[in-house]
């Protein structure tokens, strides 16, 4: 399919297009005039379809695709060429198809620009890698090819439409020279299903949206869809391929599912006897099977809540009826109906949005998205850029297996504790289960927190038995330790896989086990932490250390004290646990990764375990007893501040700072803690609080450490980013006329509460 959307830049236009596509069966929709800046890949939140786009710098022109959810798995490459063309490669049953989306220059542009556009299309048709493909070019060419004028035009069939213009002749010459045919002219349709664009006054009908292929045998039919409820002066063109060997799974539109929890609990109670007498491994697998079967039986599809009101839907029908009329009165009514429809769609979307805002205010969350950006291209080892999903998964697998490979031989320390830990009791499991949030993604076993909570008390004794066995025998069932890792983008070049944060989506049963263990050890581990460590501790936060740094700056300025700071960040900091497996999720597909080290981000034990290891390193240094280290404050010496893996070292001169860095590296090597390497050391110097060029710390630092820069500013714990984020968020809320004063007050309280604390000295 192909349509000139005349902008999907705003969330309103994108939501309207997504809603209109719900009523049409499609595999791929090509879009012209997206008006989106740059290029990227996003997943539409409601339907789950994938949108790929290629645009310019100033929000004009732009092309793209919406790929249906059942076709995404066959997508092998996406190449954003320019603001006028891009292509995707699809491979189904060894049949390679290249879909090129084009948007030609208008008739007001110069012929040289149109020739450049055609040459750009020619370059995308070439098989540079030696693989033969079926090439299909769709788009708005802004050219009327008309009917065949003589036999020397094999690119046109007997069913052309309208008269040819100058740009149409240029397009026909291009097709004849490159062995292409205009598929629209080979499809026999009535005149009402041929035209794709109508002039504003309704007097002229043109066929500007065309499909170019190399062989007419692959096209079954091509026609314009008259009843497509989307505001555009172009009609959608549907192209049906005639490829017998291509078989895809039928796509089912997502439905709103609701679970009958009383029925679910009754099914669990009825089948609970099947769990008795099984081993721990088999019992865990049987529990997962029992919960999923009960959930499937007790879940029914309910009617989806429409995005638009009944009045808006009726207006869509009126608009589609006016589109088929050409008299002057109907054209005036069509213009007014389009204006009214735009206002009604905007009001409906805003009403839905603010209904969500009320829930978000109650839950103190203000994040809401229409689509989610995903990784679609990556840098290979040789520096080349690839958008092939297979190569992306291979590169991610290699990167994380290398990252989590055990690089040091650390002897296991035998525990000297002879006291047997207390047995896990049912009330302990039930207590921690009630504290788990319900709206969390399930792990690979597809068991959610809601399923566990509603299976009580039937499953409770079996979970108690499994957890007690794991603690006593120190063995975890293999399936219970596996996880799915989702990559969250950070700052920097998103084509570099190192600029993604891996978050592990763990099984709900494993998270419950770790919470039980956390409840037993949290108090002991936190008591061993000094005040310098504020990361992931109760009654501590980032505001304390930001406040402390501001106080240090103030006192150093007041007493004219020279001060040096080194900001240290660890690469993929959680790095202590051996032998587990994970699956990295890329484009809804998972790639298995062998993990030889590393506590996982997403596990509640990871922060405390990392803090405990880091504290052992600093405890061996004994910096507090050295008079020339750090700064004296109220009878104590502050040598460092820590928030998990974000460490700040403090000294009064460069030589002492270099000595502190060297001692920290040596302590890490001596302890063999297997802490990850430091990837960023930005250091800050204040000399009499005057702007002077500081001499850099020596670069031959012991260990695998890297000096990044000497700087007079440093964004510590995302202080500046938080302020910018909330300022931009609330500026957008002020621009809406539907937000009442009460909602504005509540939203400001949520965001600016943090800003006030961050900025208070």
Description:
Residues 469-694 form the Reverse transcriptase domain. The chain is α+β, with helices and mostly antiparallel strands. The chain has three domains: 2-241, Deoxyribonuclease I, Chain A (4-Layer Sandwich), CATH 3.60.10.10; 385-411 and 424-714, no CATH class; 721-759. It is built from 18 helices and 31 strands. The strands form nine sheets. A six-stranded mixed beta sheet has the order 1-2-5-4-3-18, with no helix packed on it. A six-stranded mixed beta sheet has the order 6-7-8-9-13-10, with helices on one face. The chain has a five-stranded mixed beta sheet with strand order 28-29-23-30-31, with helices on both faces. Strand 4 (50-54) and strand 5 form a beta hairpin. Helix 2 runs parallel beside helix 3, helix 4 (261-271) runs antiparallel to helix 5 (280-298) and helix 6 packs antiparallel against helix 7 (328-363). Mean pLDDT is 78; it is low at 575-583 and 676-709.
Summed up:
This protein is an alpha+beta fold.
**Domain unit count:** 3
- What is the distance, rounded to the nearest whole angstrom, between the alpha carbons of the first and last residues? 59 Å
What portion of the residues fall into strands of 2 or more residues?
15-25%
Based on Cα principal axes, name the global outline.
Answer: globular
Total count of strands: 31
Low-confidence stretches: 575-583, 676-709
Helix/strand/pairing category = alpha+beta
**What's the gyration radius in Å?**
31 Å
Largest beta sheet: what is the strand line-up? Answer: 1-2-5-4-3-18
The overall pLDDT average reads 78
Estimate the helix proportion, in percent.
Answer: 25-40%
- The number of distinct helices, counting runs of at least 4 residues, comes to 18
Major sheet: size, sense and barrel closure?
6 strands, mixed
């Amino acid at each position: 399919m192909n349509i000139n959307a005349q902008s999907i830049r705003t969330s309103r236009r994108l939501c309207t297009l997504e809603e209109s596509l719900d009523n049409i069966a499609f595999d791929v929709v090509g879009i012209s005039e997206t008006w989106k800046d740059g290029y990227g890949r996003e997943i539409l939140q409601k339907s789950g379809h994938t949108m790929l786009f290629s645009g310019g710098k100033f929000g004009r022109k732009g092309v793209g695709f919406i790929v249906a959810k059942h076709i995404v798995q066959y997508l092998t490459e996406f190449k954003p060429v320019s603001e006028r063309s891009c292509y995707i490669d699809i491979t189904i049953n060894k049949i390679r198809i290249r879909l090129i989306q084009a948007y030609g220059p208008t008739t007001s542009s110069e012929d040289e620009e149109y020739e450049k556009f055609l040459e750009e299309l020619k370059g995308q048709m070439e098989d540079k890698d030696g693989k033969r493909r079926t090439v299909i070019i769709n788009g708005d060419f802004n050219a009327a090819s008309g009917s065949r004028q003589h036999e020397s035009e094999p690119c046109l069939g007997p069913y052309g439409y309208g008269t040819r213009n100058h740009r149409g002749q240029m397009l026909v010459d291009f097709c004849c020279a490159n062995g292409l045919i205009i598929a629209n002219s080979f499809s026999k349709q009535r005149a009402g299903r041929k035209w794709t664009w109508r002039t504003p006054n309704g007097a002229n009908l043109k066929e500007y949206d065309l499909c170019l292929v190399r062989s007419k045998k692959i096209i079954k039919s091509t026609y314009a869809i008259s009843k497509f409820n989307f505001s555009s002066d172009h009609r959608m063109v549907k192209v049906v391929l005639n490829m017998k060997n291509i078989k895809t799974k039928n796509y089912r539109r997502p439905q709103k599912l609701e679970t009958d929890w009383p029925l679910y609990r009754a099914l669990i109670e009825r089948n609970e006897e099947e769990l008795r007498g099984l081993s721990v491994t088999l019992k865990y697998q049987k529990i997962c099977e029992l919960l999923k079967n009960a959930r499937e039986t007790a879940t029914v599809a309910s009617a989806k809540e429409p995005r638009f009101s009944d009045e808006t839907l009726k207006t869509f029908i009126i608009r589609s009826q006016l589109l088929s009329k050409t008299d002057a009165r109907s054209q005036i009514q069509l213009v007014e109906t389009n204006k009214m429809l735009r206002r009604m769609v905007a009001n409906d979307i805003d009403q839905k949005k603010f209904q969500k805002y009320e829930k978000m205010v109650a839950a103190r969350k203000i994040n809401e998205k229409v689509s989610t950006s995903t990784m679609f291209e990556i840098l290979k080892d040789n520096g080349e850029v690839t958008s092939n999903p297979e190569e992306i998964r291979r590169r991610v697998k290699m990167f994380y297996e290398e990252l989590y490979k055990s690089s040091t031989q650390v002897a296991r320390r035998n525990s000297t504790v002879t006291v047997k830990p207390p047995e896990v009791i049912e009330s302990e499991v039930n207590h921690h289960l009630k504290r788990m949030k319900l709206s969390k993604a399930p792990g690979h076993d597809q068991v959610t927190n809601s399923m566990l909570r509603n299976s009580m008390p039937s499953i409770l004794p079996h979970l108690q038995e499994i957890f007690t066995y794991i603690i006593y025998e120190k063995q975890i069932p293999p399936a219970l330790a596996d996880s799915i890792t989702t990559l969250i983008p950070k700052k920097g070049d998103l084509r570099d896989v190192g600029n993604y944060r891996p978050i592990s989506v763990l099984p709900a049963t494993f998270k419950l086990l770790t919470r039980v263990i956390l409840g037993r050890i949290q108090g002991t581990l936190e008591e061993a932490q000094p005040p310098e460590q504020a990361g992931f501790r109760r009654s501590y936060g980032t505001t304390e250390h930001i406040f402390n740094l501001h106080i240090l700056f103030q006192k150093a300025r007041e007493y004219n004290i020279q001060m040096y700071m080194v900001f240290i960040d660890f690469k993929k900091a959680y790095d202590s646990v051996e032998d587990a497996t994970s699956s990295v999720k890329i484009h809804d597909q998972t790639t298995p990764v062998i993990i030889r080290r590393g506590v996982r981000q997403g596990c509640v034990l990871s922060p405390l375990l990392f803090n405990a290891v880091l504290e052992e390193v600093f405890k061996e240094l004994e910096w507090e007893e050295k008079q020339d280290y750090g700064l004296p404050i109220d009878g104590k010496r502050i040598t460092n501040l820590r928030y998990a893996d974000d460490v700040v070292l403090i000294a009064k001169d460069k030589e002492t700072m270099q000595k502190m860095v060297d001692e920290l590296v040596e302590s890490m090597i001596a302890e063999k803690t297997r802490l990850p390497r430091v990837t960023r050391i930005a250091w800050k110097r204040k000399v009499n609080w005057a702007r002077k060029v500081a001499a850099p710390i020596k670069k031959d630092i012991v260990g695998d450490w890297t000096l990044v820069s000497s700087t007079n500013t440093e964004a510590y714990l995302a202080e500046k980013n938080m302020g910018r984020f909330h300022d931009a968020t609330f500026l957008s809320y002020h621009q809406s006329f539907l937000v009442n004063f009460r909602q504005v007050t509540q939203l400001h309280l949520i965001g600016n509460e943090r800003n006030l604390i961050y900025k208070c000295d």
